## 1
Amino acid sequence: MKAEHLAVPGVRALTPYLPGKPISELERELGLRNIVKLASNENPLGPSPKALEAARRASSEIHLYPDGSGFELKAALSRKLDVRPEQITLGNGSNDALELVARAFLSPQSKAIYSEYAFAVYSIVTQAVGAQAVVAPAHDGSHGPRYGHDLQAMAQAVDESTRVVFIANPNNPTGTYLTKSELRSFLGDLPEHVIAVVDEAYFEYVEAPDYPDCIEWLSDFPSLIVIRTFSKAYGLAGLRVGYAVSSPAIADLLNRVRQPFNVNSLALEAAKAALDDNDHLTRSVSLNREGLRRLSEAFTERDLSFIPSVGNFIMVDMGRPAAPVYEALLRQGVIVRPVANYGLPNHLRVTVGTEEENRIFLAALDRVLAL
């Protein structure tokens, strides 16, 4: 009997997550050097020097297991976010926290709702536990930002078997966001048996005045879970550390299915130090603001449609199948992200890089478009 037939149905039907192409892979394939990677929404400034130093200090004790409770990091987050430590669940990246939610609250008898064009991991964790996925259509542009979450459509999909609603704010890969008023209204109308997961992986980058901080709403919505990460603005993607903030009761349930020692010692120390480096975070946000402006202007100058973004990435419509453009950019030594797997075959997602990286990308794009 084939091994595939031994797997549970949800796993058999699963399509694995496709990460951005690593620099090392492109070097092996094409023999290129000085590659610019703008594919995975990483912070082009890298991590805080304080975080690097903390990780170096912690490396002398990697023969010891990490603190399985993450006491010091949770205490630092507690002070930063003005929540209690028992409201925090640490994850091996925010993806781990999303999987904990699925394992704790979803089953083959229940449903999870998420939006069309939403982050691919929602589908993966839902299918992996055998739950039914309900994909609500995104806005078509007639009564909300095109490609953005249509909360009315999501609300209409809720029924008695719905247990989880995943909301990315802002959304990856589209960069669209939900305002305070519309999201709060949606959360207030959800029935008590539905867990609302608001994924704020790009929270630190958003500067829109009507963008909500959902952690402030936890006391108002007992079934709310807010998920954040150190992988983006804090520049710790390689260490894999994220977290969920919720009521203590929900955090207790998530911790029951959390693997022991799921966050390593270096990540715990680096994340704690990164929280204290406000200057590095400010520089990262400022660089991103200018980069988004420059890329938006450049796409407009080239008559390329794009989706306005509040994250550290931007989606550009090539006006034709984007896969050949992506492949041609690879040969130019520039890695971006094709998003045909999200149902957007004509778009590319471009991470905001440094000023020099953005310049190299645009020059490469001009050469490709001239072919």
## 2
Amino acid sequence: MTAEIHHKHRDVTGGWLRPAVFGAMDGLVSNFALIAGVAGGQAGQRVVLLAGLAGLAAGAFSMAAGEYVSVASQSELAQAEIEVERLELDRHPQAEQRELAEVFQARGVDPEVAAEVARQLSRDPNDALEVHAREELGVAPGELPSPLLAAVSSFLSFAVGAVLPVLPYLLGAGSLWPAAVIAALGLFAAGAVVSRITTRAWWYGGLRQLAFGAAAAAITYGVGALIGTNGL
């Protein structure tokens, strides 16, 4: 008889939603703050537009490169440790089986049951490697993240967020206010979406992200105004 499932859990790791939304928020906050700083220095429309496009390109490529190197390094380290585990299973299978049994015993399984479970799991080398990798390293040999996918996702999500405050200038706006309105709506929406993976209310998440973004933009606008006023 199949056990009934009476409840479902949300994805506590955030899945694709967390990195996508946070990448977009990063692009939105950083690029709007950059635009606000340049606009605060009384720069013309073309200069602000150039700064926004440059910030979009530089930030998106920087995010992609950083994410690629970070994920690739993490995967290479995991692969190296998995290879160490593979060699140990080949050279000392009995010792590794006892080690696995001790892991189960530490979790409260009776010694005899733990030894039998470890024996059965160790019959197939591939299954044994996967179990050891999960238990000792917290990873699965066939489920390591893709550096290329991470880089592309970071590039696109950052670019989506960064392009929002640039749109009004692309359409001919000559002041910061249209960009500020679009950025504010984007920040609130992103914060509300993030609330899906937290216990916070959607309006709280939206207002919190809006407050952080507004603070960053206000500071850079003030710096730009100060530098522009002093002719530096």
## 3
Amino acid sequence: MTKSHRTLLIKRPLRIFTTEERGALVRVLNRADALGNLWARGFEIWSIDIDSRFAYEFDYFKNELRLINAKKWLAKVHAIFNVGVRLTNERDMGQGVFIDLTENILRLRWVIKRRAIIISLTPSEVGYIRDRLNESGKPKLARAWVDDGHLYIAITFEREVEPIKPSNYRLVIDVNSWRHGIAWALVDGKISSMGRERPNLGYIETLYNHVTMLEHKYGTLRRLGFHKTPYGRKLWREIKATRCRLYAYLRDYTQKLVHKLAQKALKYGAMVIIDDVLEESRRELMEEKLPNGLAKAYMLYLRRFIYLLTNQLAWYGVPYEFKRLPSTKCPVCGNELTQLPGRVMQCPKCGLKANRDEIPIKWALLHQRIGSRQP
């Protein structure tokens, strides 16, 4: 049995809270963040001007904390809270973070003395929490911090999972830029099914072109010194809003695609093989001479896609491995392939001809056949 984790991130703008709550959140959480930084660097800490339970939680959860890099001068520990959940009539034991699903609210304690800050949960957040609880996940700890005018609360769920014994199926996932999509194939000695998943490219290009047009207008105003006029401020707000729409769309698409692929692997008990050479995808976009900003948009959240995918596979006990599956080398004779228009690859030696996204899958199929013949 191994322990796996998944995390729900709750984000709220500070402006929705009262003046007292905003001031307390900024002061207390920033202070706890500073103490956590000192604690991670090996100092003994005393929380003189804030609740002493913050220092206690640092020590209590020290084995569960996963620091990005403990050697960094600023270690991202943040304020640590214990967590409780009420599904029906469970007793509130005064935890730092208490999730009440009978009222769909979250109570954040220890920030203001003798009372909790109430945060309403969205339907998607409630659904996520219920799904994790139904999968035998338990809330382990919560971290809270303030940044850029927002309150963030990250709730980590823990689950003991026994890795599944993989079947003969292999789910091969070739990670490309969003322009060319995420190619996948379910193989079992042969290709059972395959597909290519990619977001709405027209929508992405529309948002990118709109941002570019607005940035040109804003740049002209800035050169003339008029960027702080009401019209200039309106342009800047529209630029930020359009960028947020693009980021939110790709982020949402990434999460849905990860869930789809993880469920497919779980359904067939398939071992997952991931080819994630993103530099090759970036070079391919550069060769197409796309605008630099658009090329960056097509690479957004791909690393997040890989992280979320491996995290969900570990949560369900699905085995996976990273393997280099070349797309420019012939899987039949090993010769270098020639690229034709339309991302079609052709071997000048043996005559193999296939789409570039199919070549890595053919390599995975070849590896499976060789592995099945070994004693």
## 4
Amino acid sequence: MTSEKIKLPPAVQAILETLQENGHEAVAVGGCIRDQVLGRPAHDWDIGTSALPEEVAQIFGANNTIPTGLQHGTVTVKKDGELFEVTTYRCDGDYSDGRHPDSVQYVRTIEEDLARRDFTINAMAYNESRGLIDPYDGRHDCEKGIIRAVGDPDARFTEDALRILRAVRFAAVLGFAVESTTKAAMQRHLDKLQNISRERIGAELYKTVTAPHAAEALQAGQGTVIRYICPELDACYGCAQNNRYHYLDVFGHTMQALANAEHYHRFPDEWADGYVRMALLLHDIGKPDSKTTDENGYDHFYSHASVSAQKAEQVLRRLRYSNAFVDTVVELVAAHDVEFVPTKACARRLLNKFGVDQLHRLLKLRECDNRAHTLEAWARFESNAVPFAAVLQQVLDEESAFSLKDLAINGKDLIAAGYKPGPQMGKLLNSLLDAVITEQCKNDPVDLFAYLNRCETEENMA
């Protein structure tokens, strides 16, 4: 990689030039340079400088600066309608809480600043006058696909244990492997993750699970990191599934199912969203507690979906995810063994229960899950799910009713027709919806009222 491959946005270049014209060194630094080296688009451009925060504010003026992180030497500069963080070169003091430096000390050179960074791929800087500044050979590690700690990995993880999860996340995003000494240090310091807030662990886990290489990153090193932060998965490791539908243990199956979200496309990619990927991670965590073995030596996992849903909720609430996120993922886990019958009645019933988006997610979840089974299990799923998806689309194209809000008549219509308000009205509407779902009548006012009249006639004759 040559320096010519790094292209600074005009606003970034203008900020660097302004600082340099005022006698200070300035560089673009960190992840933006890593992404440029890798040929990836850089979304966040961070700027480092030898100028002190008050000097940055004076140079750009009060109207163009925001004192967003003065305790860490950061001033946000407004330029061309965008915001850029400009941080004074610094070195960190002790990390007594295992997460944040107790103090920071400003330094004069970018090399001193880069020494405090987490990984070599993030310890690069650039400006046009000096070119690529890479004292830890981060470019080489980018080319080789390696995540390596800057300097002593034990020191880096002792300073900030969140870096353990960041290493896994970078591996998941970039498809890199963690270098062996760095990986060994990560495992030695797993207990320091107790210093990290559950919210931060949850945020890192979500970014990892939704990344392109999530399964490979989580499975590396025998999955020690994910098994530590999610002990419920630890029991899955080595839990055999001796039956005709499985060829991997529960943990291996889980990782393969998660990998399938990225690599298989029977159903649209956009259905494999963050809810689906988190559900794939947790969909079988109840299997070890549900396992039985019959007299022939075959393993069974009766009711594992409901047990998994209970455990999934415990995990997600412990990691402080939102109620809406938890409810959506838990519902997917609980329903991940639902049967898809390729009939319009089944499609309408499932739409009534799950809604359009959730049913699409469930189809994708089931696809990823079943592709991690034996070929026999996949063939069984495919023979039902693919035609079901076609029928589902027909139902959606017909704009048929699958919830009360879709019915062609409502409570006001029933009152106008002489029905009395009250609990009975809700029962009538639900019976009408069921009749439409099961194709006993059409979803139009005339047919719906005719169906009610038939039901009342039959009831009077009984």
